[in-house]
Design a protein that fits this description.
Aspartate Aminotransferase, domain 1; Aspartate Aminotransferase, domain 2; 39% helix; alpha/beta; 15% strand; 14 strands; 15 helices
């Protein structure tokens, strides 16, 4: 028995399903034992058997600087010596909040949380408090964490598990959620014409990352913003994945749309637990203690996470690694497409900047139906072959490959060699 297998068996005895998030399970890629990792360094993961992997998971997005970046680790160590948790206002949380407000258009005030799930949950509550309405509109295949209202027709781990909704979500919650197709302006217009006066907010990822990478069609986000505001509702962007991933700041303004509210997470924690939400000052004044919309958290704005997040943003702002990350991701995605064509394996690759998804199938993917139509069996085979070659991908056809600031041309070349061998096997030519 390998060390990975032994460790996973130990985990199954004490952790439900052996994993602390279903997205880490390998059940969607044919089952088996996921490698149990012991450390990460730069663009690499290392399992308990000592095997190295080129990592494109990036912890599902946060690790834009790769694993254990020295400046981030130094900031964590320094803050740990000062105290990892104080339970009071602290200087480093204020510095992080200042940087978020400075670098994101339309973010006038912010509140730090522990996770992106909490940030989205708070955005929903705040929008309802501000409008006095209850109905929320979201879109099929988008994932906004695991609070009750956002699990209806969600992407990411919910879709990977084959479900449309978690059990345990009350019918009363579901009736206040409307889920519409993404990239379909008419569907939103028709719904708001009929029920717009009931809608508190329209919630979306500006670039979807949880049914695979799916960009908005030209004019789509602008139309969503106009329709939402004409209905008297608030527009909220879930930028837990997208903020600071494609450029320094948020994706919405880069695409020409500034929402009323943002939910943030992942990269702003630099590998530590961190979320945030915010928007226009008058909306944020509704949050306790100034207003009656309650949100709190013992670990919200904890100095350890704030220090890690602030160090990450400082490196991103100073080094501006985005152009090189984009270039490497473009090379990787284009060369995968060429190899797929050579081996007559139909794929569709959706890429935005340094993130992309390889869908097995020839149909363009612009919405959840297109993502669902991709070939799960072929992805599972590809995933297994790539893992055997030392390439770690998310164990779901609905997730992204993330190129980090630590990947180098040699990593890309080694990955493409593995892709070539995998396609050769899949084509029956091995």
């Amino acid at each position: 028995m390998t060390e990975c297998a032994a460790w996973f068996q130990r985990g199954e005895r004490v952790i439900a399903g052996g994993v602390n998030s279903p997205a880490r399970s390998f059940r969607a890629v044919g089952g088996g034992i996921p490698p149990v990792m012991t450390r990460g360094q730069g663009p690499y993961l290392f399992d308990v058997d000592g095997r190295a992997y080129i990592d494109y998971l990036a912890a599902f997005g946060p690790l834009v600087l790769g694993h254990a970046h020295p400046r981030v680790i130094a900031a964590i160590k320094q803050q740990a010596e000062r105290g990892p948790l104080l339970g009071t206002p602290c200087d480093v949380e204020i510095l992080l909040a200042e940087e978020l407000v400075r670098s994101i258009a339309g973010l006038e005030q912010v509140r730090l949380t522990t996770t992106g799930t909490e940030a989205v949950m708070s955005v929903i509550r705040l929008a309802r408090a501000a409008t006095g309405r209850s109905l929320m509109v979201k879109f099929e295949g988008t994932y906004h964490g695991h609070s009750d209202p956002v699990l209806v027709k969600a992407g990411s781990g919910v879709a990977t598990g084959g479900g449309q909704l978690s059990s345990g979500v009350p019918a009363g919650v579901i009736q206040d959620v409307a889920t519409l197709p993404y990239n379909n302006v008419k569907a939103l217009d028709d719904f708001l014409q009929a029920r717009g006066a009931e809608v508190a907010l329209v919630l979306t990822e500006p670039i979807v990352g949880n049914m695979g990478i799916v960009a908005p069609l030209p004019g789509y986000l602008e139309a969503v913003a106009e329709l939402t505001r004409n209905a008297g509702a608030l527009l909220a962007f879930d930028e837990v994945i997208t903020a600071y991933r494609f450029s320094y700041g948020a994706a919405g303004p880069r695409l020409g749309v500034i929402p009323d509210l943002y939910a943030l997470g992942k990269i702003i924690g630099g590998g530590a637990a961190q979320g945030a939400y915010g928007g226009r000052r008058e909306l944020m004044q509704l949050v306790a203690p100034n207003g009656r919309m309650f949100q709190a958290g013992t670990l919200a704005g904890n100095p350890l996470s704030a220090a890690a997040g602030l160090a990450t943003l400082e490196v991103l702002r100073e080094d501006q690694p985005y152009a090189e990350m984009d270039r490497l991701a473009a090379v990787l995605a284009d060369e995968i497409a060429l190899r797929a064509h050579r081996w007559k394996i139909p794929v569709t690759i959706n890429r935005v900047g340094s993130a992309f998804t390889v869908f097995f199938g020839a149909t363009a993917v612009v919405d959840y139906d297109g993502a669902q139509a991709s070939d799960a069996r072929r992805f599972a085979q590809f995933h297994r072959l790539m893992l055997e070659a030392g390439i770690y991908l998310a164990p779901s056809r609905f997730e992204a490959w993330f190129v980090s600031a630590q990947h180098r041309p040699d990593d890309i070349a080694q990955t493409l060699d593995a892709v070539e061998r995998a396609f050769q096997v899949m084509a029956g030519r091995d």
